[in-house]
Structure formats: C-alpha cells, structure tokens
Write a structure and sequence with these properties.
Elements (H helix, E strand, L loop, with lengths): L2 H21 L4 H47 L6 H18 L4 H25 L18 H8 L2 E2 L2 E2 L8 H7 L3 H33 L5 H27 L4 H28 L4 H37 L4 H57 L13 E3 L13 E3 L4
Antiparallel strand pairs: 1-2, 3-4
Helix pairs in contact: 1-2, 1-4, 2-3, 2-4, 2-9, 2-10, 4-9, 7-8, 7-9, 10-11
C-alpha cells in the first residue's frame, strides 16, 4: 500500500535534486542535503490544509460544547420521536451555523498518515538500501533509480557520510572513510535538537488540551494523560533510538527538518485559530467548571482511598486504636461503594435511554418505509395505449392455374 505514496514522494525528491544539481549547479552532496528539506517542505506543505481542517474541527468542537451540552441536558430523558427530531434539528442547525462537519476531523488523518509513512520510507530506504551499502547496484525506490540511490549514499555532511550511524563497527567506519568521533559529533547535536523540537511541539499540544479538553469524557481524559507522559518520554526515546540503533545520519537530518516544520506549522495554525475563532467568556467559564468539577471529584475519591490505606496501616502499626481504624475503613469503603453504585446507576440509565431512542428511531424509519411502499402501490397504474393490429388483405387477380392463390396479409399495419 505504501508504494502508491512512495512514488510521488520519491518523484518530488528527484525533481529537487535535478533542479539543485543540474540547473543551479550545486554540488551533488549539497543538492541531496537540500533535497531532504525541499521534500519536507513540499510534502508537508501539501498536507498543511489537512492539518488545518483537523485543528479547526477541534476548535469548533470546543466552541459548540456549552450549547450542545445545554441541548443534551434539555432532552436527556426524552425518548419521543418528535423530541428526538427536535433535538437533532437543533444540533444540526447549531453545527451548520459555525460550519462544523464530522468529516473534517476524521478524513484528513486517514490521508495524512500514509503520506507521512511514505515520506519516512523513502528516506529510510535511501539511507539503508536493502542491497547493503557495499552493493554496486541498488533496488530502485519509486522514481529514484539505482544510480540515484548510489549517488545519495555518496553524500557527505562535512566528513560524515549520509548512511553512517553511531553503532557501526570500526571496519564499516573505515570503509565509509569516517570515524566514530566524527559521526557522534554530527549526530548527537541533531538528536538533541530533534528531541527538543518534539518536546516543544508536544508541550504546546498539552497546554492547549488543558484548556480545551472535554473533562466529562473519560476516554479523552485518559488520552490526554498519555500525551502528558509522552511529552517527556518521547524525546528521550527518540535520542535513545538514534544513539543506540542503526539510524543513519540522513534520517537524523530528516527528523530535525520534519520536527521543525511540525512545530512552526502548529504554532502558526494555533495563532490563526486563536485570533479567528476566539473563546467567549461563556466557553471559558464552561471549560473551567467541568475542569474544576473533575478535579474536585478526583480529590474526594483520593481522600477516601488514601484514608482507607492509612487506616489499614494503622491496624498494623497502631493496633490500640483498632476500633477507630476499622470505623474509618468502613466509612471510606461505604462512601466509595455508594459513589460507584451511583455512577453505575447513572451509566445504566443513560444506556437505557439511548437504547430506547435507538429503538424508537428504528421503528419510525420502518414505518416510513412501509408508508412509502403503500403510497407507491396505492397510486393508479397508467395504462399504456393498446395497439390494434389489423389484417389487411391485398387482393390479387386469380391466375389460370391449378393451384389456388393465397392472398397476401400485412401483419404490421397498425
């Protein structure tokens, strides 16, 4: 599947190299180095409108959230078909007013991910060809021929070849004409820079999520917590892979360029969205309220959980207050049980309401189909005009013959 994306990506890189080397007359190594950044600019520039659609969809979701929540609260227990239609009509009109569509947030990622994979695969296959670095011929990569791949492998960043990586053996360093120290001095700063760019990009997203997250959705909160952990873990993992894995110098250059583009792109888009679609005071107050409600809820739960744990420890280290500890354990257990029972009851109620709404909508659709069929069958059929076939006899003179003459009949006269 990636081949269909590798061809256009490799074609863009080849055009950049031809333009820089053959037209502008730059050296082969410098042309390939600039082609990496040119490839990033073109491919990421083409996908920028898709990123805009994704972030705009998220922004509009936050803007609509208070009003959608008010509509959901108004019709939370209604299962009548007329009320359901009224609720759907209000939501649809509200979304149409701000220009929100579900497709804008779902379809672009399905296009972006394969393109990004194709971009990375082109760089990886060029820097680490399947035939090996010592082979005289290499497997073509999309529109890049064997000679193009061989020329790229001869590219040097200073005295560091493009396919060199830190964990190479000394024999491989000697074969490429470089040393371990030179590769480390070139690759390590790039890995640090790539990690810092990744950290800043994810930190911006984390801060944005803090103010725009739907704290009533447990899945969204869990995903946001994972992003927070990844913000600190991903840069370290990136550096570790680049330092200990077979990651060529060309890939580290690509990481820096791609992460720099991502950071600048997100900063610019966030700034435009903040100016063009500002949050009203109502939205800010609503986000603050649901955030504080969740924090207060978690604080109460933690208070009882840790109180029960401390009481269990008190039974071990302070047994002379055994009755008091058991009382605290029982109170905390009862509170947590009641809280869990209440949440389960509310979840069960919502599930029942949604199931009833779904049943009512299915019955309504079925009735509409039946009425449509009845209406189609009750309409009188339009009769087509009948065609009359006349037999026209053409009389012919009787000849003096022993055989009787049969008259000619025209069967096609209407």
């Amino acid at each position: 599947m990636l081949e269909m994306f590798i061809y256009p990506v490799s074609g863009v890189m080849k055009l950049w190299h031809v333009f820089l080397h053959s037209v502008l007359g730059l050296s082969d190594s410098l042309s390939w180095l600039l082609s990496i950044f040119g490839l990033i600019v073109v491919v990421r520039g083409i996908t920028t409108p898709l990123q805009w659609m994704i972030l705009l969809s998220g922004r509009l979701t936050v803007i609509l959230r208070p009003q959608l929540a008010a509509i959901a609260k108004e019709y939370e227990n209604d299962t009548d078909i007329e009320k359901i239609k009224e609720k759907d009509a209000k939501e649809k009109a509200l979304k149409k007013e701000v220009g929100y569509t579900v497709r804008a947030g779902c379809i672009p990622p399905l296009i972006q991910v394969p393109v990004f994979l194709g971009l990375y695969q082109v760089m990886l296959r060029m820097a680490r060809p399947r035939d090996g670095l010592d082979s005289t011929t290499h497997e073509p990569i999309g529109f890049l021929t064997s000679n193009d791949v061989a020329s790229f492998l001869q590219t040097r960043f200073g005295n560091v070849p493009a396919p060199a990586y830190i964990t190479m053996s000394q024999a491989q360093f000697d074969r490429l004409g470089t040393t371990y120290d030179e590769v480390v001095q070139f690759v390590v700063p790039l890995l640090i820079l790539a990690g810092m760019l990744t950290f800043f990009t994810m930190m911006i997203s984390t801060v944005r999520n803090f103010f725009t997250l739907d704290y009533n959705a447990k899945i969204a909160v869990r995903m946001a917590n994972i992003v927070v952990i990844s913000t600190f873990f991903t840069p370290v993992l990136l550096f570790f892979i680049g330092f200990t894995g077979p990651i060529p110098a060309a890939i580290t250059v690509y990481w820096v360029g791609n992460n720099l583009w991502t950071l600048l792109q997100n900063v610019v888009i966030f700034a435009i969205l903040h100016k063009k679609y500002p949050f009203t005071e109502e939205i800010k107050q609503y986000q603050y309220k649901i955030r504080r409600d969740r924090i207060d809820h978690q604080r109460v739960v933690r208070h009882h959980v840790w109180g029960r744990r401390i009481a269990h420890l008190g039974l071990i280290f302070n047994p002379w207050n055994k009755a008091r500890h058991k009382e605290r354990i029982a109170a905390a257990t009862q509170f947590l049980h009641d809280l869990k029972t209440e949440e389960q009851a509310e979840k069960k109620r919502r599930k029942a309401v949604n199931a009833e709404r779904l049943r009512v909508q299915m019955v309504h659709r079925r009735q509409k189909r039946i009425e449509k069929r009845k209406k189609a069958t009750s309409q009188p059929e339009v009769k087509k005009p009948e065609r009359r076939i006349e037999l026209i006899e053409e009389a012919e003179p009787v000849e003096d013959s022993a055989m009787p003459v049969t008259p000619k009949v025209n069967y096609w006269s209407v």
